[in-house]
Design a protein that fits this description.
single chain, globular, binds 2-acetamido-2-deoxy-beta-D-glucopyranose, signal
Length: 149
């Protein structure tokens, strides 16, 4: 599901990311928000990689098929240390990989701080503003730390 959605949306995404010359960072951000995306979220006691078919409308619990729990660089609280090279494989078999600058958290919201790939399409990773995307089944608020478009 993850794979095929990306395949069908690839052309749309390429168009959506082609911002007009001179667009401000915020305009680029708004244009990019129309595409599908991947969010790197923290849910108090664990982290998750969340796939959004429509990044303008992804403030809901993604369900098991559209999320992946990374376990490669955990800190002492069970959260992923995102500012590194990491990856996570969804149940569908698709692996999303990212590479995020070590100083990403000291940069302004929505800054470009890294890159990502799902194996056949590249993504730009930006710092997010830590808005709560959803509350999981255990009452944990899940906040968006980075997003990839
Ligand atoms: C994405 O979600 C936004 C906000 O709900 C909506 O306005 C837009 O039509 C959606 N885009 C697609 C392609 O479904
Ligand atoms: C990012 O946005 C959040 C929420 O609006 C705000 O609290 C925070 O100060 C912002 N961070 C930066 C570095 O601008």
């Amino acid at each position: 599901m993850f794979f095929s959605k990306f395949a069908t949306c690839a052309a749309f995404l390429a168009t959506a990311l082609a911002s007009p010359l001179g667009a401000s960072a915020n305009e680029e951000h708004q244009i990019a928000k129309r595409a599908n995306g991947v969010h790197l979220v923290n849910c108090v006691t664990y982290s998750a990689v969340v796939y959004c078919e429509n990044d303008s409308n992804c403030n809901f619990n993604p369900g098991a098929g559209n999320q992946c729990i990374p376990r490669d660089h955990l800190n002492g609280n069970g959260l992923e240390i995102w500012e590194s090279a990491g990856s996570c494989t969804f149940d569908t078999g698709t692996t999303f990989s990212w590479n995020i600058q070590s100083n990403a958290q000291s940069q302004p919201n929505f800054s470009v701080v890294g890159s990502g790939t799902n194996g056949f399409q590249g993504f730009t990773v930006r710092k997010d503003d830590q808005h709560v995307m959803y509350t999981d089944g255990n009452g944990h608020a899940c906040r968006s730390i980075y997003y990839a478009l």
